[in-house]
Design a protein that fits this description.
The chain is an alpha+beta fold. The protein has helices spanning 8-11, 27-37, 41-46; strands at residues 3-5, 19-21, 48-52, 55-57, 70-75. The radius of gyration is 12 Å and the shape is globular. The termini are far apart.
Length: 80
């Protein structure tokens, strides 16, 4: 199952949990499961990009997740 890692900024919404494993085929379902478990994350993660296995994916909703995937939430960077 994919492992989600939470930064110290996000752990205030997870009750101190720094990582969690959740079964989800895509990022969209993973985000829904995270918000269902930790409702306070909804506003926080909506402003962040998703990094899957070290690669930032700004529009990651339909990205597939592998059982060994590692997910991090990172600030979005504007390009020009």
């Amino acid at each position: 199952m994919p492992i989600v890692h939470f930064s110290s900024t996000l752990t205030r919404h997870t009750g101190g949990v720094t990582q969690i494993t959740l079964e989800a085929p895509r990022v969209k379902e993973l985000l829904a499961a995270l918000v269902a478990r930790f409702p306070g994350l909804e506003l926080e993660i909506s402003d962040l990009a998703v990094a899957i296995d070290g690669e930032v994916r700004p529009d990651a909703a339909y990205e597939p997740l592998m059982p060994h995937s590692e997910i991090y939430f990172v600030p979005k960077i504007a390009g020009g």
